[in-house]
Each structure stands twice: as structure tokens, then as C-alpha cells.
Write a structure and sequence with these properties.
single chain, mainly beta, 53% strand, seven-stranded mixed beta sheet
Length: 127
């Protein structure tokens, strides 16, 4: 059973930066695509970014491209989301998720492809 714990959220002013972390337990982390999703109040959960198991393939939502960077350290069983130039519309609960399939050769953006989820960390960007 994989357990994911997010950290690093908080309150930041518009234009600021935050770095989210996702600490994983279990043996599958280094073999699975990891993704970040977010959910704002009253809205559906949306894809933010994903990185394949080896860190060689990344995919971003258009809304964060050029501002957010996803990365991972398999030796530490930890994934990251560096968020720069934050905007009020980035305010949401951010969730990390782990792919249901091992060694996938592409990075899915659908939440249904991810089996394991963390509890989320709140990110609030003030204007």
C-alpha cells in the first residue's frame, strides 16, 4: 500500500513562489508516473503536471506551463512541484497522485489513471 503525504502549501502573495513536496512510502514510487492535481472551491479537480517514473518525460497544463516545474527524487521517494509567478487563480488544494500502472511510457493527465492519492495541501495566493 502506497501512502502519499503532501507538504509545502501556504499563503503567498501574487507573484510569489512555493515548493510543494510529496513524500511517498512503498516500493512502487520509483516505478510510477507521479502527478499533481488541484481543486479550487466549487470546481472540479484538474490536472496540473505529471512526470514519468524516470523523470525524463513531463507534461503540464497550459495554465501553469512556464511557471511550474515538476520533478522527483526517486532515491528519496519524493516528488516536487516548484510554483513560481503564482496568481490568485492558482488558489486550490493541491494533491499528488501515483499512477496505477508501472513503467508507463507516457504521462496521463486523467485522474482516473492514478490509483494512489495524498490528502492535499492548501495553496492560497492573495492579490
Amino acid at each position: 500500500q502506497v501512502r502519499l503525504v503532501e507538504s509545502g502549501g501556504g499563503l503567498v502573495q501574487s507573484g510569489g513562489s512555493l515548493r510543494l513536496s510529496c513524500a511517498a512510502s512503498g516500493w512502487t514510487f520509483s516505478k510510477s508516473t507521479m502527478a499533481w492535481f488541484r481543486q479550487a472551491p466549487g470546481k472540479e479537480r484538474e490536472f496540473v503536471a505529471a512526470i514519468n517514473w524516470s523523470g525524463t518525460i513531463t507534461h503540464y497544463a497550459d495554465s501553469v506551463k512556464g511557471r511550474f516545474t515538476i520533478s522527483r527524487d526517486n532515491a528519496k521517494n519524493t516528488g516536487y512541484l516548484q510554483m513560481n509567478s503564482l496568481k490568485p487563480e492558482d488558489t486550490a488544494v493541491y494533491y499528488c497522485a501515483l499512477d496505477a500502472q508501472l513503467f508507463r511510457t507516457w504521462v496521463p493527465a486523467l485522474s482516473s489513471e492514478y490509483r494512489n492519492w495524498g490528502q492535499g495541501t492548501q495553496v492560497t495566493v492573495s492579490s
